[in-house]
Amino acid sequence: MIKLHHLNKSRSKRIIWLLEELKQPYEVVSYQRDAQTFLAPEALKAVHPLGKSPVIEIDGKMLAESGAITEYLISKFAEGELSPARGSAEYADYLYWMHFAESSAMLPLLLVTFLKREPAKTEFLEAMPTQKPRRFWGTSTSRLKTQPIWLATNCPARTL
Ligand SMILES: N[C@@H](CCC(=O)N[C@@H](CS)C(=O)NCC(=O)O)C(=O)O
Q1: Which has more pLDDT, 160 or 153?
Q2: Ligand 1 centroid to residue 80 C-alpha, Å
Q3: To which H or E segment does residue 96 belong?
Q4: Which is the most buried residue in 12, 31, 64, 78, by most CB within 10 A?
Q5: Burial (CB count <10 Å: 0-12, 13-18, 19+), residue 45
Q6: Which CATH class is domain 1-82?
Q7: Among the listed residues 11, 144, 151, the one whose alpha carbon sits nearest the alpha carbon of residue 69
Q8: For residue 157, what pLDDT is reported?
Q9: What is the rounded distance in angstroms from the CA atom of residue 157 to the CA atom of residue 86?
Q10: pLDDT category of residue 150 using cuts at 50, 70 and 90
């Protein structure tokens, strides 16, 4: 059964909506944000290098990134529904909006959210530019040492 590592007040809700829409059985493992910092608890670092949600366990692997999870679940379970035909003009739009949400749109939206908070509630932001990338690169490097083809096997796009 699919397992969803779900953080309260997070993008992970999108995955719950999608799993409901797809009528797939799933189990939720819940994590609560720290009341002061609003960050995820340490326990989430056991399933995601940066301690982020959503993460799903499916087909014997862990998959993070809400966009990747969405695309994977749709390609596996939607049977041609919920996305246009691959290669169609609509498919280009579908990809655009799927990626826009987490790239061009997300940073300004987050900045607006944080700038509205009192300074005392955004102190954790100062640590992020050093801690998160260090953790990300550490995890990526150790992954590359054991699995040089990191992104996927038989996938020319990995070289881009
Ligand atoms: N690009 C990732 C972002 C994941 C992400 O930042 N998740 C937030 C919740 S919306 C999180 O886990 N924040 C807790 C933290 O950074 O400690 C995705 O789309 O899944």
Answers
A1: 153
A2: 28
A3: helix 89-102
A4: 12
A5: middle
A6: alpha beta
A7: 11
A8: 54
A9: 16
A10: very low
**For residue 47, pLDDT beyond 70:** yes
Which residue's alpha carbon is nearest to atom 20 within ligand 1? Answer: 65
- The residue contributing the CA closest to ligand 1 atom 11 is 52
For the chain, which residues make up each domain, given as ranges? 1-82, 84-125
The alpha carbon of 112 and the centre of ligand 1 are apart by a number of angstroms equal to 16
Measured in Å, residue 37 CA sits from the centre of ligand 1 at 14
Would you state the pLDDT for residue 160? 47
Separation CA 28–CA 104 (nearest Å): 29
β-sheet bridge partners, residue 57? 3, 62
Its pTM stands at 0.85
